[in-house]
Amino acid sequence: MLGAIEAGGTKFVCAVSDEDLNIIERVSFPTTTPEETLEKVFHFFDTYEDLKAIGIGSFGPIDINKHSKKYGYVTSTPKLAWKNFDFLGEMKKHYPLPMGWTTDVNAACLGEYEVGSAANNDSCIYLTVGTGIGGGAIMNGRFVEGFGHPEMGHILVKPHQKDDFEGWCPYHRNCLEGLAAGPSVEKRYGIKAQEIDADHEIWQILAYYLAQALVDYTLILRPEKIILGGGVMSQIQMLDLVKKEFTTLLANYVEIPDIHSYIVRPSLGNNAGIMGGLLLARKSL
Ligand code: ADP
Ligand code: ZN
Questions:
Q1: 187-206 CB burial, b ≥16 within 10 A, e <16
Q2: What average pLDDT does this structure show over 80-91?
Q3: Which residues pair with 15 in a beta bridge?
Q4: Which ligand is nearest to the CA of 181?
Q5: What interhelical angle do 34-45 and 87-94 show, nearest 10?
Q6: DSSP conformational letter for 165
Q7: Is the C-beta atom of 235 inside 6 A of ligand 1?
Q8: 273 — phi, psi (to 5°)?
Q9: Domain 2-106+270-284 classified CATH 3.30.420.40?
């Protein structure tokens, strides 16, 4: 039996599956303090005695560098209760099992790469556009990472002509996340992103920022596929707006696969992260 945790900044999802990744049980609860949240995690997994491994995809930034003293920690997160919390260490104290440890977006990327929309590809990027923006990449079966994991949401973009919003990233103000994550819409207009009309100019503006990012990722990594998930992308017009802006900005400089198979939605939907966690658990055996 395999276990997985999708540890989000808003909610945690835990699941167990058989060795073939068929999910047996899945629970979800809000992310509160580390102590309270892990108590719920333990309560869930404690009932499964023949658990063989656990895969964790966590919100971050996290330390994934095996040579680091803080490997397994949540590091510079704005969620203060979780800052410098030894997440993996606490899990290992409780369960003497092999564990996989990576970012939430890397886990979702792995899910899509192995059993989702990139199952026939050797490389892909997964980007979520939700409360924050984060991305993970896999090239030839390996996560793209080095000293740390990528932070694709905090790259710098040029402002849209019609946008005078100053941005809300506490570190960079007007980075991609500061300008194009879901809360940026509410900060501009005072109402939630999901309550704004589909033909409002904001979607065009967000698409412009996201397309710039996708051009950068394309130029640096040349992936076979870019998968866009997260709450903001559930605006159905967004995908086409992003593709259109992307095509203009890339200006045919490099060859890419057909645009409709290049920029796509996650075929696992919001199961990508938990499937990735289970795959990570299986890999750790
Ligand atoms: P999280 O990033 O916390 O895991 P989501 O991916 O659901 O969760 O992202 C939440 C963000 O997406 C919020 O800022 C919310 O306003 C925005 N959002 C959710 N649904 C929609 C929608 N249908 N249209 C536009 N924005 C949305
Ligand atoms: Zn930033």
A1: ebeeeebeebeeeeebbbbb
A2: 97
A3: 4, 26
A4: 1
A5: 40
A6: -
A7: yes
A8: -65, -45
A9: yes
In ligand 1, the atom with minimum distance to the C-alpha of 130 is 9
Q: Give the torsion through C-alpha atoms of 86, 90, 96, 100, to 10 deg.
A: -50
- Whether residue 230 has its Cβ less than 6 Å from ligand 1: yes
Phi, psi of 11 (to 5 degrees): -145, 155
Joined together, the tokens standing for residue 245 give: 């802006």
Question: What does the block give as tokens for 160?
Answer: 């849209």
Question: What's residue 67's pLDDT?
Answer: 95
Mean pLDDT for all residues in the chain: 97
Q: List own/partner pairs for 16-22 with CB under 8 A and 24 or more apart.
A: 16/45, 16/48, 16/51, 17/278, 19/52, 19/282, 21/115, 21/275, 21/278, 21/279, 21/282
Sorted by sequence, the CB contacts under 8 Å of residue 164 that are 6+ apart come out as none
Beta strand 226-229 with 142-143 is unpaired
pTM more than 0.85: yes
CATH 3.30.420.40 fits 118-266, yes or no: yes
Q: For residue range 147-196, what is the model confidence (pLDDT) as tens digits?
A: 999 999 999 999 999 999 999 999 999 999 999 999 999 999 999 999 99
Enumerate the CATH 3.30.420.40 domain ranges in the chain, comma separated: 2-106+270-284, 118-266
- CB atoms under 10 Å from CB of 214, counted, come to 27
65 within ligand 1 shell (Cβ under 6 A): no
